[in-house]
């Protein structure tokens, strides 16, 4: 029957009769400008995609692969010969910077112009969102008119950091799921995956020089807590402990995959706190060589007092060696060193730390943390990398050249921008995807907080009180998915979608075009796409209106 259906489809290349109106343009994030014309272009088995580079070919494949699954025909990707009619033509335009693109659809030809690979990918994503939502299907979809409106789209992102942080320590997510997250980010024109690889509950990256980090530190005693029983069995080892880690090959594979989708993977190696997993593996990294078992429940235990010793030289030697391997793997300009929530009671009692404070003339434990981070900053900058850390790195004096990720509201971000440091805004008021998104009684257990869709939509990485000069230091914004209460991949999807759609608009679209009413219509079309993609999005999020 499949063959018959395909033959039937192929034989009816009748031009579309469909008349498009503004209501048919349901693109998220909303482009900078769209001008709708008259008529349409119809994809069929004779449509060609014409490319001149490998980057363009892989951008084109994102769509031709879809057609071969849903339409029963697979448009050919060609490199030569001006096939002017019935073709999608990729054109390099050096004037278009970074992720900018122009998409021009005429009745017999489509042009996608960009200066760089990201622009071509995003042009294709926009074209994809102009197609019927069935383009996202997993099956052949008969009787669909694969037409798109005649239109001119000009588009570029408002911010260059459009991120999502994924916590794979509290719960471990396998490589294949990370790729799915990357796919989802790309479809929303997001370009940073901040990979939270280290925390109390598990060390998730293989470090050749320190094998115990993953032999010991990646596996924790499974707690009896009821709501965590949903953890996938596959993530328990023979001993029944829970966990997992990425080998260096896994990491390379993830990075290459992300690169092909214009996504930078920024690794986070936490320090000096949130490192019980490391101290459990190598107790000498703590002030008192006190072995801590990784029996931390996935929900975590605060305050975080088992932290690296800031007095022993050995700690710095260890971290530099770890970072050397991390830099070898990750091409990212930014290396995240955490820096958050270090309760420094051990440092007060530790002879090594106290000696360090004396010799370095440091007046408080905050200054000792600042010393710690400065050393890391110097080390990273020698290797041409930029240190980024949570806003606690401001305390006791910010290292020169450091970039700040503002999470305790926007205060830290304001302070850093005022001092001429780059900033990524990720305030827990608008960007914490681990918070509830609907009425608590209807929602799966979450850490707390309340972040409905419309609140994410109000997020603006630039704070109103900022001067133009200060605003110029804001790289962009990011959502954080802390995973204490997120044991499975489908639960993770539930927390990410549709809030990612709202976030994407906050970091991509011009501020003036922000319109909740309009977005809440467009997001319904996105729901259809998510349904076809079998994404477990939170339908409840939509119930909350402005
Ligand atoms: C605070 S945000 C943390 C994380 C938790 C999160 C829960 C930040 C830098 N630290 O360790 O997972 O709250 O919302």
Characteristics:
8-stranded parallel β-barrel, 17% strand, binds ligand TNX, alpha/beta, 33% helix, 546 residues, Chitobiase, domain 2, TIM Barrel, single chain
Offer a quick outline of the entry.
The protein has 546 residues and is an alpha/beta fold. The protein folds into two domains: 2-155, Chitobiase, domain 2; 161-543, Alpha-Beta Barrel (TIM Barrel). The chain is built from 18 helices and 19 strands.
Q: Count of helices?
A: 18
Strand order of the largest sheet: 8-9-14-15-16-17-18-19
Total domains: 2
Helical proportion, percent range: 25-40%
CATH class of the largest domain: Alpha Beta
Taking all residues together, what is the mean pLDDT? 93
What is the CATH H-level superfamily of the largest domain? Glycosidases
Class by helix and strand content?
A: alpha/beta
Number of strands: 19
CATH fold name of the largest domain, please?
Answer: TIM Barrel
Strand fraction equals: 15-25%
Q: Bound small molecules, which ones?
A: ligand TNX
User: What is the CA-CA span between the terminal residues?
Assistant: 48 Å
